[in-house]
């Protein structure tokens, strides 16, 4: 544990002269600025937040909790810095992430507390602590191993509130000093008065804003960081009271339910900053935002300007960059007390959670440009007249101080302040007079503020409206409703917010009349105010829904507004409007109101919430309202317009099985074919056995289209019962049945085992190739086939249809009909079916096929390479001599050489391990670089438990080391209170020693259920970072390593992943093979460098892309109007969105950014298996997965133990391994030609 070495010790820091003499490397600043290193570790350690007191003293947070740790014990501190000396001011704190100074008090955000510290005896150390808020974040914010995503930056506004940025771990239950409670799901902003009263949520829907910055007029800005999905950016956000900005879900899935951010970019990691509002710098800096970006090693300057009721980014420029510093990690900024310079805190380390490094720097930035302004004298003394005049000072700090002093003088200042408020110029002084009156809060003071609600100056009206809302002054209701028609959208916004806070239902008619405001943010504020008042009026809602100007806003207002009058109004409006478009929207809105979301449990959703289970509406509410929802949807289902009926079908299907009577009643009446198909599919997915009779009638009706009959047949396949089976069998044996339906029915019936093998074989002679192909797919591999049937399958190898021949090859392998091997050997040399024959021969390994397997491991197709290697492993002992000769010939390419080395090597599991865990998900690499680990030492693990090293044996064959006991039977489903999805939650370490009688090259086979890092002799030799986990296999990864003579130290860092937590390591025996010298590999780095510096031939690249027997891009992707595959996104228009470097990265690192809609899921099954693929369809009871080979698997949900969205692309690893640099450049050049926008789908 970290300890301050000498509490209270004054330490002399680096002098400017010593700094110059040593030529300390410095960050690079913008033109006109000078930067100096003022302090550094070990005199300040792990610095975070910073603030300047009025006397010039700096207060700096120190965060050892998130470096040496532990992250679950209060060992942080705050130090003061003045005149080159450091002194401990407060200690035994939780993670210090926010500081503010006000009236000789230091306010410290150290979740789960907001505390006020004072030095009452003047010795430079706090002796008074008052906790103003408890529950500021989770009970143990560092539960995941690091205090991230927690409450951070804090700023005091002119309105007398402390504003605090909240990370997306949220606030399960925050309690102010007056007992007020709040809950905040996700990130946002809260506010509280300096005495701990008035606690409230300001805004929601942010990710991880570490900083809050206030403009001179209390506009609230935050700067955060992007998430692991790379969909949410580093966000610069302007916050309004009641605003929601869409994180973690709505910003992508339902953007109409969120306000937009000001600006953002993917990449980086936003930290803390400020808004410059002082007078010591040129006027061009006034109102600018400065934010540190830890990840980009840059301090950015943002210039914003008002647009409507919010702001837009005018310009963003680097202000401080890392220069010659490799480890520059800016964290926070503060303005000097005189306003003439800035202080900058540098974390000074490229990571966190490191036990050993002592890090941290403090820089001083001064402006030396020619336009440095003249300083305006600051007021002296306590004379109220002087302080009143100072309300017009150009420095915000001076104005705020004078405002507070006047407010402290109380009621006798109401007269002078009122006079100043009503004096038209300068405007800023009027605003501070207003808020001084607000703080005095007498009847006369309130009346004075109310008198300027209709003032000529926009900002005065706005601040007066803000005051009315904060004070909930119902006397100002009339004035506020008038402001809903103000010419300025920001004033209208604040008027709406204030009306929502009044709690007076009398405001509703005016707010309802204001719906349809043309400003996006103002219209949001109006809707939010109506929701806050909860005084729903059915008739006024109906009128608004029927009003062309207000309808759109009213539909947004009623969206997910669970109230009986809302549902009744929607149903009434549905029958009163003639517009089918509007009726469709109303039906969709009604459908979303059937159930509510489950209450938040307080658990975090992790760093990539889109990779987890999305919130589901599972909670029943008002029974009358729910019945009205069904009534409204029933009306929609009988609507005269098919588009309206379509929305009703979708809604009923989404609600679940209780809606099948409605869907069934419509089934035989529906005349629109797409809707009929939707009904059929819904009834099948919802498992409505009572619909089977009518489904059978539809399926057998020759007057129906084949599309409809096929859908009915598929739906029947999901239902049980003798009647259903008879209907399905009727297609197979009906000579008049359409070919497509017979072909559709055969495979499923065959796999279910209801068709005799001889009956299926009869279809192999059918005149239609489609049926012959379906018959082949109908054979059940679990049933033994008669000899004559087996021969009938082999005979299809000479079928006149190429597709039938290919299917026959696949089925022969699936049925393990080895009599076909001689025929397959010949076909492997036929260009048209060579790949299929090779795959079949790999499934049935035979030494006769050795040349074919050797060719396969050199193929460009990764799937063929894997299949060839698997087959060679099976026949290795019978062809070892030939394999050795091939390996030593030097004629194989890099991947093939590695493959043969793996085949010929004999592996033994590393059996004897020491293990320790569980640690939290985010864990310091505490053992990674240690040459001698103290195995007797205990450590602090997850949830603060004490853990120690214990011996553990691996399974004797696979080397699998089980770690599931570390989950304590619950793991990521709540065992330690961790996030329940999105990323692995726990970490463990394992150590073993491997002896070697000489220095040698060895191969390792590594398997894991989740991310794994492997070091040998303190050197990282392998890292697999599938954060969501992966199916465990003992040979997932092949790693080439160098062993030294003697004992080799092996350390594994294993994270939980999915399924049973485990890992395995097997190592090649010394005598198994002499590893060949490897040819120069086309590493990703080499391919990238070549393609960046060379232009390829796009025509050759196009041939590579569309060659199905090559790297196989076309198997999953279409592009430029060519190809039909949809396992991956259509790449048409790719070059419109990404530059060359990004296209290269996407090919070499396909998992780095997965396209929306193409993220695979991982399913951990009750039998221990883990399946992965894309979801093709899903019902209440089943999921259909499509794997990388487009194979569809239907899975019963009751067999699924855990589900996650994978962060690993289905695009195979090593796709470019067999391409030369020139060929790779050709492929990239072709992808760069894809600049045409994708075709829009046809209008319905």
Describe this structure in words.
It comes from Singulisphaera sp. Ch08. Residues 1096-1235 form the Cytochrome c domain. Pfam families: DUF7133, HEAT_2. InterPro entries: 6-blade_b-propeller_TolB-like, ARM-like, ARM-type_fold, Cyt_c-like_dom, Cyt_c-like_dom_sf, DUF7133, Haem-bd_dom_put, PBS_lyase_HEAT. Residues 1-20 form the signal peptide. The chain is α+β, with helices and mostly antiparallel strands and 1244 residues long. Among the domains are: 11-367, Neuraminidase, CATH 2.120.10.30; 376-452, Leucine-rich Repeat Variant (Alpha Horseshoe); 738-827, Leucine-rich Repeat Variant; 907-1072, Sandwich (Jelly Rolls); 1085-1159 and 1207-1232, Cytochrome Bc1 Complex, Chain D, domain 2 (Orthogonal Bundle). The protein is 32% helix and 22% strand. The protein contains 38 helices and 49 strands. The strands form eleven sheets. A six-stranded antiparallel β-sheet has the order 8-9-10-11-14-15, with no helix packed on it. A hairpin with a 2-residue loop joins strand 8 (98-102) and strand 9 (105-110). It is globular and about 110 Å long. The two termini are 66 Å apart.
